[in-house]
Amino acid sequence: MKNQKKDEQNVNKKTEDLQQNVSSAEGQFLTTNQGVKINDNNNSLKSGERGPSLLEDFILREKITHFDHERIPERIVHARGSGAHGVFQLYESQAEVTKAGFLNDTSRTTPVFVRFSTVAGSKGSTDLARDVRGFAVKFYTDEGIFDLVGNNIPVFSIQDAMKFPDFIHSVKPEPHHEMPQAASAHDTFWDFVSLVPETMHMTSWVMSDRGIPKSLRMMEGFGIHTFRLINEEGKSHFVKFHWKPLLGVHSVCWDEATKISGKDPDFHRRDLWENIEKGNYPEWELGLQIVPEEDEFKFDFDLLDPTKLIPEELVPVKIVGKMTLNRNPDNFFAETEQVAFHPGHIVPGIDFSNDPLLQGRLFSYTDTQLSRLGSPNFHEIPINRSVAPVHNNQRDAHMRMTVNKGNTAYHPNSLGGGCPFQAMMKEGGFTSFPERVDAHKIRNRSESFSDHFSQTKLFMNSLSEHEKRHMIDAYAFELSKVNYDHVKERVCFNLNMIDKDVAKKVADKLGIDIPKKVDMPLNQNIGADENPNNHQPKDANSVTAKSDKLSMTAHNKGDIKTRMIGIICDNGVDETSLNNYKTALEKEGADYKIVAPKGGKIKGNNGTEMKVDENFLTATSVVFDAMFVPSGISDVVVSHEVSRHLLNETFKHCKAIAVEGNGKELLSNTNIPTDKEDPALLIDKKPADFVKAIAAGRNWNRELNPIVPA
């Protein structure tokens, strides 16, 4: 009995000890980890509203440092990545605006390493999650490393780095049960979005088809932030960086994305790897949007606001060079996993702006590499090494590779002959742009950052009908996963400030009413109580402008290079029918796979043996861009449920289908209507017509009459 009582006492004491570490924030003030009450958790400390962020901001540093070290060793964001080596070639010198050597000398070929990634998911998540895609490029220039660390979306979700940990925490799996994985369709994300209206622009991009790209090779890339270019005379221009894919910009539809995630979660990674191995080297052109220093304030948005883009109609993108990815990594961990990017890795001729999100990233990236790679010597890992010589007085630390000779590890010195020397500007020494800063230390946000909805409206206005339809469906799907009506109502309220038609359609699908006003929790608006920016953002429904470049339809190149076509056939296939189409596809740079009931080989009607690439056990339509059924297919193919499903699903996903000869018998066994005009359904047409139909893009009008089950 005594022992039992003693055991109970021990259990109770253990419970009490554990309870001491349980924290409930209900009714409490927000504090630092040192217990200091926080007055403003939305804005970093700056020199003036539009000035640079200050190193003394202990609240920002504590918050970012904790965030950077939350995961070991996997990246906190962008954990799921794919990489490739390549080269960058300049078309024409940009000496007029920058002294950066790789942007001046057209005879130089600059090596690059690129890492594409999803943001929210872990390393083991699917490639086809609805998400932003990272697009980070490491230039190994003669003057040092330049990292262009961007995304496939031109704007960011938040304006100040102070909010970055909050944004990522909201989109990550919820901490009490670690669900859902690699998905924004849950309570905490939309709660945050509904309370922070500045997120609406980027969120709308993610809810569009841009959030589910067809291929990493078919994405645009953006540097997001406004940087500076500095020329030899010290003159500054503002710049935004763009990557334009030569294959065009393409997506999958949502039903495809969910099925690909189940059938082949490595779809993007496999697609990039296999095409490089085949010699189908992905290519992007580098574009610059250049704004003279004197034009900084001529726009109705702020260049320093990372939630804003510059419409190409206002500042055209100047194409200056081409990047080609031509080699896969030899070892995934050593290269793709250990590569360390940093927006603070710049070279002479490129400099920062006072974008408050960029300013926070300049601190964050070094800090997170220290945690993830374990040492300040991460620059010595081969994939991160500069091709320019490295000489400084830094020594020691974990995993030091360099053997430094001599007895001086300080500067200035005379014992080492004064080496290494400081470089004058004319000798290539980096100097920061001497921007004048004369302002009060303040936690605030510029009034010019306060319009959160006009550019979101611009984006929605610019979408084609099917793109807008998909975006509305995506909002409705994601919000249907939210368990709190007040969160749904706040999101719809914000949407109503942007586009009343979009908001109404989303609300109707959710079965809710759009509120006339919403209550915001205490101090939840932008800034603290005294902040003059603590106001309702203006209604953007009056915005009528559009920007054609924001629609994906503007980026269809009209060709079928590297597209994958499924050919359904079996023994006895008509070789003439098959070969005519194969020849036409190969001529246009497309690829194909033979899909048959069984694996191994099949024989054509002339006795030619052909390898089967996919059998009916493994075949899925979602990995193909179109389907062809040649003449001479067997009765097994005509009647098989898999071949019927392949065509039904291809039709449902609005892709081109061609049939010849008795291939029509299989078509008649499907649910596909043949009595309506459909430019992407070709019966006994020429191979050239099939090529043209694929190049034209999907026939999205099929979605208006969704009668085909698949």
TrEMBL record:
Cofactors, names only: heme
Location of the active site: H78, N151
Entry keyword Nuclease: no
CDD domains: catalase_clade_2, GATase1_catalase
EC code: 1.11.1.6
Gene Ontology terms describing biological process: hydrogen peroxide catabolic process; response to oxidative stress
Basic and acidic residues bias locations: 1-17
Protein family (similarity comment): Belongs to the catalase family. HPII subfamily.
Stated role: Decomposes hydrogen peroxide into water and oxygen; serves to protect cells from the toxic effects of hydrogen peroxide.
Listed name of the protein: Catalase
Name of the gene encoding the protein in the UniProt record: katE
